[in-house]
Amino acid sequence: MQPDQWLAQYDSKIAAAKQKSEQATSQLGEVGGSAESPDGLIRVSVNASGALTALDIKPAARGMDPDEIASAILTAATQAQRSASGKVVEIMTEFVGESPALDFVKQQMPHGYSGDGTDEEEPESELKRRDTRPDDDYFTNPPDVMA
């Protein structure tokens, strides 16, 4: 192979890599996720890194308990982050393929979510797991905490 031919091939590989990189950067810049509470009163949006970009709480939520509102916001934010994470993993899989670089990207996703379909379902929110029995019932029959 002639040096000029080798250099031309190298230049073409560099140009293709640059184009692919610019395409991935553009796609990642457009990634985001949105989710809303089951009752539709709270909606959140996040960017590709999972940071909250919008929070919409409808006036009908005014009568809700503050703990319910907080739980709904956190649950919706987690769902939105999972959605965005899946899109990021999809784009990066096209860009770098199955590789240590992709494994690193998966490790950086919020809540340890890799976005590749192998993740467990998100656990129930704290509010749903909370014991809401009346105090008399709770203290008469406390939960087993020493398992």
Question: Can you walk through the features of this model?
Answer:
This is YbaB/EbfC family nucleoid-associated protein. InterPro entries: YbaB-like_sf (IPR036894), YbaB/EbfC (IPR004401). One of its GO terms (molecular function) is DNA binding. The protein is mainly alpha-helical. The chain has a domain of 85 residues: 2-Layer Sandwich (Ybab, Chain: A), CATH 3.30.1310. The chain is built from 5 helices and 3 strands; from the N terminus they run αβββαααα. The protein has a 3-stranded antiparallel beta sheet. Helix 1 packs antiparallel against helix 2 and helix 2 runs antiparallel to helix 3. The model has no long low-confidence stretch (mean pLDDT 80).
Keywords:
147 residues; mainly alpha; Ybab, Chain: A; three-stranded antiparallel sheet; 52% helix; elongated; DNA binding; YbaB-like_sf; YbaB/EbfC
